[in-house]
Amino acid sequence: MFTDFIDGPFWTFSVSVFAIGVIWRLISIIRLGVPGDLAVPREDGGAGGMRTILSRFMARPAVRKRALLIVVAGYMFHVGLFALLFFAQPHIDFYVDRFGVPAWAGMPRWLFILTAEIAFAGLIMAWLYRVMHPVTRMLSGIGEHTASWLVFFVMLTGCLALLEQYDSLRVLHFFLAELLLIYFPFSSLMHTFTFAFSRNYTGATMGRRGVDA
Amino acid sequence: MSERLEKGIQALRDKMDARIASYFSSCVHCGLCAEACLFATESQDPIYTPIYKLEPMRKVWSREYSFWGKLGAMIGVTDNVTEEDFANWETLVYDSCTMCGRCSMVCPVGIDITYMIRKEREAFVAAGYTPEGLQAATERAINIGSPMGVTLKTLQATIRSVEKETGLTIPMDVAGADYMALFSSMEIVNFEEYIAGLARIFKAAGVSWTVSSKGFEATNSGIQIGDPEAAKTIVERVVSAAEELGVKSVISPECGHAFMAIRWEGPNLIGRQYPFKVIHILELLSELHENGSLQLEGMTDTPLTYHDPCQISRRGGVIQQPRDLLNSVASNFQEMSDGGDMNWCCGGGGGVSANERADEIRLQAFNIKKKQLAELDGVETIVTACANCRLMLEDGLEHYELSHEVTGLTELIAEHIKQ
Ligand code: SF4
Ligand code: SF4
Predict the structure, then answer these.
(1) Across the interface, do B31 and A144 touch by the CB < 8 Å criterion?
(2) How far, in Å, CA of A115 to CA of A117, rounded?
(3) Does ipTM exceed 0.90?
(4) Which residue minimizes the CA distance to atom 5 of ligand 2?
(5) Which residues in chain B (44-63) have CB-CB distances under 8 A to chain A?
(6) Of chain A's two ends, which shows fewer C-beta atoms within 10 Å, N or C?
(7) Considering only alpha carbons, which residue of chain B is nearest residue A201?
(8) In B82-131, which residue ranges form alpha helices assigned H by DSSP?
């Protein structure tokens, strides 16, 4: 009964909240508009925006050497999570089943497990940094902690579900992922989408001035 | 709610554009921006974290643009900005931020913190929380025409002195000249060697130029304090002087924020494009050198380094030109670590130098320059291209009992003109 609810109506509800919420958030940002720039540009702003969207995937050496731990933790978590979400076989099977998309090649199981461990370690490192470093401790609020813990439990139950011994663990993982989907549009997890906007705005402005931001 | 608080909050609300909303939506509070800010790294105090300087603006965004903030406001649990916030953040916004843009270069989600601080300052002006030193400088800029109180008479005296020293005539108010040169008050008062260098270079390169008696001051305290009306008035003065003389281009002086004001912010402040081009003096010198009009001779073997003024390099895009120029006159030019678009600020930009209250934190932050200089091999000369940086460097060097000499790039180039 609970399993059916989680697999059925609650999935539909959570994915709808996620989709509508994300679109609503993005529209509410875009509709505020940006003032035009009348200064004669040195370079094309569009190219600058695109360049910054891509270049900020690499941490600048100046900051890499000063904050290596959080930079490494960030990469471990984000790259690991991306690989898990899109190349873990159970997730691919899920997308094929739910969205009817054609299947694509997944990671071998050993790589899947290794990736999960890296992502998990990255998340824990980032959280420890958050609570221990004076700057991040000061900046972080309930939003960051809620997001960190939700992601933590989704990943933990995901790892446990890997054992494939109890369906209840899969259902628990799925339920927590649905909660995360519902929370997502109302939280700083929105940076998953808005980062591209932010990098683009900054990159375009600085690109017009001839600066590779 | 007091009227001034209401005005301040309304100004914060008015600044909220898609950029700022996207920035606040994207911040993951990773703290990396603190690793880029000289005030944060040198004090090791987390309150100087760049994004934290935007807390008043973030509060307004949260209350009015975020789901939880709006919900919290409805049930009365989300804080609004208070008079206390304005009072407490005034020093963070004005004393410990030079708007150098370094934090904006490292944020992983691409937030331009500097842009927001610039906008936030406008709300501090609306609420009446601004440092006295900057207020006075802005008033002088509006009433006298210069933040340092430099009048046409002062300029004329400097020009007479330069003419005597160089034996050249400084062309005043020449209609139809190709270029109209602007100066910063500091150049007129403290560094007339810049004006002398310019006169020699332009004579040698055969440049048609002039100085307007109606619009010669390039700095803009209105931008530094965050007063758009004052900023607009100051820009308009230069624009109408250039239009009246019908010049083809206006030359921004070495001063970094003057370049930002006239080149990048000016057209947006007055709401139209200029009928003339704006070029930074280093861009022009580089062009003249490249096209052969400016011939240089002799190489100095004195070890020297270049301090990038933030608004010229990181925020202004003039990065390669000073290096090309230096390499054509100096055989032992050494880059500071992080030189170029990631150079560390002198600590006195963005109006900090005009704000005496900030002296202590500014000099503490200067420790980063001391560290940069210590890494170089036998360098005792710092070349820069901003009168304000120059004064701040000299002040910081004196404070840390360092014996480096500071000089301007234009002057250095003028010393190497082919005879
Ligand atoms: S670096 Fe960017 S994302 Fe990180 S705390 Fe600073 S502003 Fe926020
Ligand atoms: S603009 Fe410069 S001084 Fe201001 S917060 Fe950013 S790094 Fe610090």
Answers:
(1) no
(2) 5
(3) yes
(4) B50
(5) 46-47, 49, 51-52
(6) N
(7) B19
(8) 83-90, 102-106, 113-127
Rg (CA), chain B: 22
Closest B-chain CA to A142: B68
Q: Where in the sequence of chain B do the CATH 3.40.50 domains occur?
A: 296-414
Q: How many CB atoms lie within 10 A of CB A44?
A: 12
Q: Which atom of ligand 1 is nearest to the CA of B23?
A: 7
Q: Look up the CATH number of domain B146-289.
A: 1.20.1050
Per-residue pLDDT of B40-73, as tens digits, reads: 999 999 999 999 999 999 999 999 999 999 999 9
Task: Choose which CATH entry (1.10.3470, 1.10.1060, 3.30.460, 1.20.120) describes domain B3-130.
Answer: 1.10.1060
Ligand 1 centroid–CA A48 distance in Å is 20
Question: Where exactly does CATH 1.10.1060 map onto chain B?
Answer: 3-130
Give pLDDT tens digits for B244-257.
999 999 999 999 99
The tokens of B165 are what? 């020293």
- CB neighbour list of residue A175: distance below 8 Å, 6 or more residues apart: A6, A10
Q: Which ligand is nearest to the CA of B30?
A: 1
Within B15-112, residue ranges assigned H as helices are 18-26, 38-43, 55-65, 67-74, 83-90, 102-106
| B296-414 fold | Rossmann fold (3.40.50)
Portions of chain B given CATH number 1.20.1050:
146-289
Which residue segments constitute the domains of chain A, with CATH numbers given?
A: 2-208 (1.20.950.20)
Distance (Å) of CA B53 to CA A10, A92, A185, B81, B127 = 41, 43, 26, 13, 16
